[in-house]
Design brief:
Blueprint lengths: L1 H9 L2 H18 L1 H4 L30 H37 L1 H16 L2 H12 L3 H28 L2 H8 L4 H37 L11 H7 L12 H26 L6
Amino acid sequence: MNKLKTVLYSAPWSARFGIVVILIFSVISIFAPLIAPYGETEIIGKSYELWSEKHILGTDNLGRDMLSRLIFGARNTIGMALLTTFLAFLIGSITGMIAAVLGGWVDQIFGRIVDVLMSIPSLIFALLILSFFGTSVTYLIGTIAILEATRVFRLARATGMNVAVMDFVEVAKLRGEKLGWIIRKEILPNITAPLLAEFGLRFCFVFLFISALSFLGLGIQPPSADWGSMVRDNATLISYDDITPLLPAGAIALLTVATNFVVDWMLHKSSGLKDVN
Protein backbone atom coordinates (compact mmCIF):
# COMPACT_ATOMS: atom_id res chain seq x y z
CA MET A 1 0.00 0.00 0.00
CA ASN A 2 2.80 2.39 0.90
CA LYS A 3 4.57 1.53 -2.34
CA LEU A 4 1.41 2.35 -4.30
CA LYS A 5 1.12 5.72 -2.55
CA THR A 6 4.77 6.49 -3.34
CA VAL A 7 4.25 5.67 -7.02
CA LEU A 8 1.11 7.82 -7.23
CA TYR A 9 2.77 10.76 -5.47
CA SER A 10 5.68 10.58 -7.90
CA ALA A 11 3.34 10.66 -10.91
CA PRO A 12 3.14 13.90 -12.93
CA TRP A 13 0.06 16.08 -12.70
CA SER A 14 -1.20 14.83 -16.06
CA ALA A 15 -1.21 11.21 -14.87
CA ARG A 16 -2.93 12.17 -11.61
CA PHE A 17 -5.57 14.05 -13.60
CA GLY A 18 -6.06 11.00 -15.82
CA ILE A 19 -6.39 8.65 -12.84
CA VAL A 20 -8.98 10.91 -11.19
CA VAL A 21 -11.04 11.15 -14.40
CA ILE A 22 -10.90 7.38 -14.93
CA LEU A 23 -11.99 6.75 -11.34
CA ILE A 24 -14.90 9.20 -11.66
CA PHE A 25 -16.10 7.59 -14.89
CA SER A 26 -15.68 4.14 -13.35
CA VAL A 27 -17.86 5.05 -10.34
CA ILE A 28 -20.49 6.57 -12.63
CA SER A 29 -20.51 3.46 -14.82
CA ILE A 30 -20.80 1.01 -11.91
CA PHE A 31 -23.46 2.91 -9.99
CA ALA A 32 -25.36 4.34 -12.98
CA PRO A 33 -28.81 3.07 -11.86
CA LEU A 34 -28.32 4.71 -8.46
CA ILE A 35 -26.91 8.01 -9.73
CA ALA A 36 -29.21 8.67 -12.70
CA PRO A 37 -32.32 10.68 -11.79
CA TYR A 38 -34.45 8.86 -14.39
CA GLY A 39 -34.46 5.54 -16.23
CA GLU A 40 -32.34 4.87 -19.28
CA THR A 41 -35.28 4.67 -21.69
CA GLU A 42 -37.89 6.57 -19.69
CA ILE A 43 -39.68 9.35 -21.62
CA ILE A 44 -40.38 12.06 -19.09
CA GLY A 45 -40.96 15.23 -21.12
CA LYS A 46 -41.24 16.87 -24.50
CA SER A 47 -38.57 16.64 -27.18
CA TYR A 48 -35.58 18.97 -26.84
CA GLU A 49 -36.63 20.67 -23.62
CA LEU A 50 -34.23 23.36 -22.44
CA TRP A 51 -31.98 22.99 -19.41
CA SER A 52 -33.98 23.45 -16.20
CA GLU A 53 -34.09 22.41 -12.56
CA LYS A 54 -36.17 19.37 -13.49
CA HIS A 55 -33.91 18.39 -16.38
CA ILE A 56 -30.44 19.75 -15.71
CA LEU A 57 -29.21 19.04 -19.25
CA GLY A 58 -32.59 19.13 -20.96
CA THR A 59 -34.16 16.28 -22.92
CA ASP A 60 -33.22 14.51 -26.15
CA ASN A 61 -35.13 14.04 -29.41
CA LEU A 62 -37.61 11.64 -27.77
CA GLY A 63 -38.05 13.48 -24.48
CA ARG A 64 -35.64 11.40 -22.40
CA ASP A 65 -33.51 13.04 -19.73
CA MET A 66 -30.09 13.86 -21.18
CA LEU A 67 -28.22 13.63 -17.87
CA SER A 68 -29.60 10.15 -17.23
CA ARG A 69 -28.75 9.09 -20.78
CA LEU A 70 -25.19 10.38 -20.34
CA ILE A 71 -24.78 8.41 -17.12
CA PHE A 72 -26.16 5.18 -18.59
CA GLY A 73 -24.18 5.84 -21.75
CA ALA A 74 -21.00 5.77 -19.68
CA ARG A 75 -21.85 2.32 -18.38
CA ASN A 76 -22.75 0.93 -21.82
CA THR A 77 -19.94 2.49 -23.85
CA ILE A 78 -17.11 2.01 -21.33
CA GLY A 79 -18.31 -1.44 -20.30
CA MET A 80 -18.45 -2.69 -23.88
CA ALA A 81 -15.06 -1.13 -24.67
CA LEU A 82 -13.49 -2.86 -21.65
CA LEU A 83 -15.01 -6.22 -22.51
CA THR A 84 -13.89 -5.92 -26.13
CA THR A 85 -10.37 -4.91 -25.12
CA PHE A 86 -10.07 -7.83 -22.69
CA LEU A 87 -11.18 -10.24 -25.41
CA ALA A 88 -8.77 -8.71 -27.93
CA PHE A 89 -5.89 -9.08 -25.47
CA LEU A 90 -6.85 -12.63 -24.61
CA ILE A 91 -6.76 -13.62 -28.29
CA GLY A 92 -3.81 -11.48 -29.37
CA SER A 93 -1.45 -12.03 -26.44
CA ILE A 94 -1.93 -15.82 -26.30
CA THR A 95 -1.45 -16.33 -30.04
CA GLY A 96 1.47 -13.88 -30.08
CA MET A 97 3.32 -15.67 -27.28
CA ILE A 98 2.62 -19.06 -28.85
CA ALA A 99 4.09 -17.82 -32.14
CA ALA A 100 7.12 -16.40 -30.31
CA VAL A 101 7.89 -19.63 -28.44
CA LEU A 102 7.15 -22.17 -31.18
CA GLY A 103 8.25 -20.19 -34.23
CA GLY A 104 8.44 -22.06 -37.52
CA TRP A 105 5.24 -22.86 -39.41
CA VAL A 106 3.04 -21.85 -36.45
CA ASP A 107 4.54 -18.37 -36.49
CA GLN A 108 4.15 -18.19 -40.27
CA ILE A 109 0.47 -19.18 -40.23
CA PHE A 110 -0.46 -16.76 -37.45
CA GLY A 111 1.61 -14.01 -39.07
CA ARG A 112 -0.03 -14.37 -42.49
CA ILE A 113 -3.55 -14.34 -40.99
CA VAL A 114 -2.71 -11.16 -39.07
CA ASP A 115 -1.20 -9.56 -42.19
CA VAL A 116 -4.39 -10.22 -44.15
CA LEU A 117 -6.61 -8.74 -41.43
CA MET A 118 -4.39 -5.69 -40.99
CA SER A 119 -4.32 -5.03 -44.74
CA ILE A 120 -8.06 -4.26 -44.68
CA PRO A 121 -9.05 -0.86 -43.22
CA SER A 122 -10.64 -1.56 -39.83
CA LEU A 123 -13.70 0.64 -40.29
CA ILE A 124 -14.52 -0.79 -43.72
CA PHE A 125 -14.07 -4.36 -42.45
CA ALA A 126 -16.31 -3.70 -39.44
CA LEU A 127 -18.98 -2.06 -41.60
CA LEU A 128 -19.01 -5.04 -43.96
CA ILE A 129 -19.23 -7.64 -41.19
CA LEU A 130 -21.89 -5.81 -39.19
CA SER A 131 -23.94 -5.01 -42.29
CA PHE A 132 -23.91 -8.70 -43.29
CA PHE A 133 -24.37 -10.43 -39.92
CA GLY A 134 -26.32 -7.72 -38.09
CA THR A 135 -25.57 -5.22 -35.36
CA SER A 136 -26.06 -7.37 -32.28
CA VAL A 137 -23.77 -6.83 -29.29
CA THR A 138 -22.17 -10.24 -29.83
CA TYR A 139 -21.13 -9.52 -33.42
CA LEU A 140 -20.04 -6.00 -32.50
CA ILE A 141 -17.75 -7.18 -29.70
CA GLY A 142 -16.42 -10.13 -31.70
CA THR A 143 -15.65 -8.08 -34.82
CA ILE A 144 -13.80 -5.30 -33.01
CA ALA A 145 -11.98 -7.77 -30.74
CA ILE A 146 -10.61 -9.72 -33.72
CA LEU A 147 -9.50 -6.53 -35.46
CA GLU A 148 -7.73 -5.17 -32.38
CA ALA A 149 -6.23 -8.57 -31.51
CA THR A 150 -4.02 -8.27 -34.59
CA ARG A 151 -2.24 -5.26 -33.05
CA VAL A 152 -1.86 -7.05 -29.72
CA PHE A 153 -0.49 -10.11 -31.53
CA ARG A 154 2.26 -8.05 -33.16
CA LEU A 155 3.36 -6.59 -29.82
CA ALA A 156 3.15 -9.88 -27.89
CA ARG A 157 5.07 -11.71 -30.59
CA ALA A 158 7.82 -9.06 -30.84
CA THR A 159 8.37 -8.76 -27.09
CA GLY A 160 7.90 -12.49 -26.57
CA MET A 161 10.58 -13.35 -29.12
CA ASN A 162 13.08 -11.18 -27.23
CA VAL A 163 12.41 -13.25 -24.11
CA ALA A 164 12.12 -16.64 -25.86
CA VAL A 165 15.81 -16.58 -26.84
CA MET A 166 16.98 -16.07 -23.26
CA ASP A 167 18.91 -18.82 -21.48
CA PHE A 168 16.29 -19.42 -18.78
CA VAL A 169 13.68 -20.19 -21.45
CA GLU A 170 16.04 -22.64 -23.15
CA VAL A 171 16.68 -24.28 -19.78
CA ALA A 172 12.93 -24.63 -19.21
CA LYS A 173 12.55 -26.29 -22.61
CA LEU A 174 15.40 -28.70 -21.82
CA ARG A 175 13.73 -29.56 -18.52
CA GLY A 176 10.73 -30.67 -20.52
CA GLU A 177 8.38 -27.89 -19.44
CA LYS A 178 5.24 -27.66 -21.55
CA LEU A 179 4.27 -24.69 -23.71
CA GLY A 180 1.64 -23.40 -21.31
CA TRP A 181 4.07 -23.40 -18.38
CA ILE A 182 6.76 -21.57 -20.36
CA ILE A 183 4.30 -18.90 -21.49
CA ARG A 184 2.77 -18.45 -18.03
CA LYS A 185 5.96 -18.57 -15.96
CA GLU A 186 8.71 -17.31 -18.25
CA ILE A 187 7.34 -15.20 -21.11
CA LEU A 188 4.31 -13.38 -19.67
CA PRO A 189 5.97 -11.99 -16.48
CA ASN A 190 8.72 -10.41 -18.61
CA ILE A 191 6.43 -8.67 -21.08
CA THR A 192 3.68 -7.54 -18.70
CA ALA A 193 4.76 -3.87 -18.62
CA PRO A 194 4.49 -3.20 -22.39
CA LEU A 195 1.28 -5.22 -22.56
CA LEU A 196 -0.31 -3.14 -19.80
CA ALA A 197 0.63 0.07 -21.59
CA GLU A 198 -0.74 -1.34 -24.84
CA PHE A 199 -3.97 -2.26 -23.03
CA GLY A 200 -4.58 1.41 -22.28
CA LEU A 201 -3.94 2.40 -25.89
CA ARG A 202 -6.12 -0.39 -27.25
CA PHE A 203 -8.92 0.63 -24.88
CA CYS A 204 -8.81 4.16 -26.33
CA PHE A 205 -8.97 2.87 -29.90
CA VAL A 206 -11.78 0.44 -29.10
CA PHE A 207 -13.69 3.10 -27.19
CA LEU A 208 -13.46 5.54 -30.11
CA PHE A 209 -14.23 2.77 -32.61
CA ILE A 210 -17.44 1.79 -30.82
CA SER A 211 -18.49 5.44 -30.57
CA ALA A 212 -17.82 5.93 -34.29
CA LEU A 213 -19.86 2.87 -35.24
CA SER A 214 -22.70 4.01 -32.96
CA PHE A 215 -22.63 7.44 -34.62
CA LEU A 216 -23.01 5.66 -37.98
CA GLY A 217 -25.89 3.55 -36.61
CA LEU A 218 -24.02 0.22 -36.45
CA GLY A 219 -22.87 0.29 -32.84
CA ILE A 220 -24.91 -0.06 -29.65
CA GLN A 221 -28.52 -0.07 -30.79
CA PRO A 222 -31.48 1.91 -29.40
CA PRO A 223 -33.00 2.20 -26.92
CA SER A 224 -29.72 1.60 -25.06
CA ALA A 225 -27.83 4.80 -24.30
CA ASP A 226 -24.51 5.30 -26.04
CA TRP A 227 -22.41 8.43 -26.35
CA GLY A 228 -21.82 8.02 -30.09
CA SER A 229 -25.50 7.60 -30.94
CA MET A 230 -26.41 10.46 -28.57
CA VAL A 231 -24.27 12.83 -30.65
CA ARG A 232 -26.05 11.69 -33.83
CA ASP A 233 -29.57 11.83 -32.37
CA ASN A 234 -29.18 15.37 -31.05
CA ALA A 235 -26.91 16.83 -33.74
CA THR A 236 -29.73 19.03 -35.07
CA LEU A 237 -29.50 21.19 -31.91
CA ILE A 238 -26.14 22.56 -33.03
CA SER A 239 -28.01 24.60 -35.66
CA TYR A 240 -29.82 26.36 -32.81
CA ASP A 241 -26.66 27.20 -30.82
CA ASP A 242 -27.40 24.46 -28.29
CA ILE A 243 -24.29 22.66 -26.96
CA THR A 244 -26.22 19.58 -25.78
CA PRO A 245 -24.84 17.32 -28.57
CA LEU A 246 -21.32 18.34 -27.54
CA LEU A 247 -21.74 16.86 -24.04
CA PRO A 248 -21.41 13.17 -25.04
CA ALA A 249 -18.69 14.18 -27.52
CA GLY A 250 -16.88 15.98 -24.71
CA ALA A 251 -17.20 12.93 -22.46
CA ILE A 252 -15.63 10.77 -25.19
CA ALA A 253 -12.76 13.24 -25.62
CA LEU A 254 -12.19 13.65 -21.86
CA LEU A 255 -11.94 9.92 -21.17
CA THR A 256 -9.67 9.39 -24.18
CA VAL A 257 -7.28 12.17 -23.12
CA ALA A 258 -7.27 10.98 -19.49
CA THR A 259 -6.46 7.41 -20.51
CA ASN A 260 -3.64 8.60 -22.76
CA PHE A 261 -2.15 10.61 -19.89
CA VAL A 262 -2.05 7.48 -17.73
CA VAL A 263 -0.67 5.33 -20.56
CA ASP A 264 2.11 7.85 -21.28
CA TRP A 265 3.10 7.74 -17.63
CA MET A 266 3.04 3.92 -17.59
CA LEU A 267 5.22 3.81 -20.71
CA HIS A 268 7.67 6.22 -19.09
CA LYS A 269 7.81 4.12 -15.92
CA SER A 270 8.28 0.83 -17.78
CA SER A 271 11.04 2.29 -19.99
CA GLY A 272 13.22 2.99 -16.95
CA LEU A 273 13.90 6.58 -18.02
CA LYS A 274 14.54 9.18 -15.34
CA ASP A 275 12.48 12.34 -15.02
CA VAL A 276 14.27 15.47 -16.19
CA ASN A 277 13.85 18.44 -13.88
